[in-house]
Design brief:
It contains 5 helices and 7 strands; from the N terminus they run E-E-H-E-E-H-H-E-E-H-E-H. The chain is α+β, with helices and mostly antiparallel strands. The strands form 2 sheets. It has a 4-stranded antiparallel beta sheet with strand order 3-4-2-5. A 3-stranded antiparallel beta sheet has the order 6-1-7. The mean pLDDT is about 90.
């Protein structure tokens, strides 16, 4: 959407720490639909559930597809505590999906793999720059502001907030 493009240089308006959660699946056997379709359909249910509950801590996400076998989601959270609380919450979509995957994997099912990485990045240890872009990544999750408010150079923006900036 061209109207959403922010002209010029902007940066994410993150205040404090940033939490980035990467999660994905890899289809190891394309013909094993019974193995990977349940994994594929679980993530949209979780994202829908999280999107309906702003107090749950998910600030934004982006789905990425890499070829025929790899699907990843980049998620931005208000805190790692909120992320872990969702992962272990009874009555939410994650726990039954995780239990079902584990059952299939214990029974020798290697037709689909899953992975995740969690990064809790302290203030002053991340840097962002967007040029002529709509809100994207951390800026979509936290808002954006003119880049020069945090510094003209990447090194200046990287250290922003580490000394109360």
């Amino acid at each position: 959407m061209a109207g959403d493009v922010r002209a010029g240089r902007t940066t994410a308006a993150v205040r404090g720490d940033a939490v980035v959660f990467l999660i994905g699946m890899r289809i190891n056997k394309l013909r094993a639909l019974r193995s990977w379709v349940p994994v594929l359909t679980a993530m949209p249910r979780m994202l829908k559930e999280l999107s309906k509950d702003p107090a749950g801590g998910l600030l934004g996400f982006r789905v990425m597809v890499g070829g025929l076998r790899d699907i990843s989601v980049v998620q931005y959270w208000e805190s790692h505590e909120a992320l872990f609380a969702y992962a272990s919450a009874a009555g939410k979509e994650h726990r039954p999906a995780w239990a079902a995957y584990n059952r299939r994997a214990r029974n020798g099912g290697s037709d689909v793999g899953i992975w995740h990485e969690t990064y809790a990045v302290p203030a002053g240890r991340y840097e962002t720059l967007y040029v002529n872009m709509p809100p994207y990544g951390l800026a979509a999750a936290h808002g954006n502001e003119p880049a020069d408010r945090r510094g003209e150079r990447a090194a200046e923006r990287m250290s922003y907030g580490s000394t109360g900036g």
